[in-house]
Amino acid sequence: MTTFARTRRPANSARRRGQRGDESSAVETIAGEPLRIPRERTDWEIDLKGQRLKLTNLKMPFWPDLGIAKGDLLQYYADMAAVLLPHLANRAMVMKRYPNGAAGEFFFMKHAPRPRPDWLQICSIKHDSGNIVDFPVVQDLASLLYIVNLGCIDLNQWYATCDDVDRPDYLHFDLDPVDPAGFKKVRDAALIVHEALDQLGIPSLAKTTGSRGIHIYVPIVRGPHQKQVWQFAKDLAKVLAARHPNTLTAEYRIAKRPPNRVLVDYNQNAWGRTLASIYSVRPKPQATVSTPVTWQEVGDGIRTEDFRIDNVRERVRRVGDLWRPLLARRGRCRLEDFISKSVRTAGAGTSK
Fold first, then answer.
1. What are the CA-CA distances from residue 153 to residues 3, 62, 74, 88, 274 (Å)?
2. What is the pLDDT of residues 94-130, one digit of tens each?
3. Fold classified for 170-339
4. Do residues 74 and 148 touch, judged by C-beta distance below 8 A?
5. pLDDT per residue over 265-316, tens digit each?
6. Which of 194, 146, 163, 182 is nearest to 45 (CA)?
7. Full-model pTM
8. Domain boundaries, the chain
9. C-alpha span between 46 and 16 (Å, rounded)
């Protein structure tokens, strides 16, 4: 059972700039202009098209060595909202909270906090345990900033939309190096998976994880159940690992995983699992960002640290959103055409 609670429409009368001298209680109305979060304030209360929001602890260092504060993280997400929000809309959000910054302790949170704003949309999902979890949904700038203000550095949304959480509209492969494998081997692994999908006529998109690996996503026509999507990814991962045993592994058990390989992690396609979203800042020392890349760039030798909170905005202004095909109706794979067939014809190149 899934319930998608629509936003309650707020009152039409937006609050104007606050008159009191206390900066934490002043409410500013932002309309039709870029949002600029003041660096000199500790807290800031704003009204975004009738959605009132208080941003807190803006001066808290989130990456002290880089001079990046919580307010800078919020500013990054405000600047990226136009390209980021379409990838998050209508999907349950799992919160991974870092209240003390990127190097601090973190915890996962699924239930939307209480109390919470009336305008925050909720996706209520019933789990096998019988529990119903009220996930928040990031639909707009206000809800995006609300979630980040909770200390969420990266964003982790579901693969299926709230109207049918059992049928995802994309599948993915999480390429994760096994020590001592480095990022060059990850790039090689990504090109192997891409070539195999290409031979099947299946489109694929790549992004850096912002950590050690690469994510490969396939836009699919919604239809197959989550377990079928997971099974297809598992079958293809195992076939490719068998064909490229010196580069890839699909062994999920850590104790049996061979060293110096790249894990083709299919298991993240399981129901309820998440990965860091597109354009997510990661809690890493260089504030790296999970960034879409072209297959040409993968072949040319991109590095994780090429994409950071300080330069991704300019890249997007220059190249646009390379992951727009993940949102398009056209060009999606009909996975049903492959589920009934063997994937053993994929990636028939020589082993590496």
1. 27, 9, 9, 15, 15
2. 999 999 999 999 999 999 999 999 999 999 999 999 9
3. DNA primase, PRIM domain (3.90.920)
4. yes
5. 999 999 999 999 999 999 999 999 999 999 999 999 999 999 999 999 999 9
6. 146
7. 0.90
8. 2-9+17-157, 170-339
9. 9
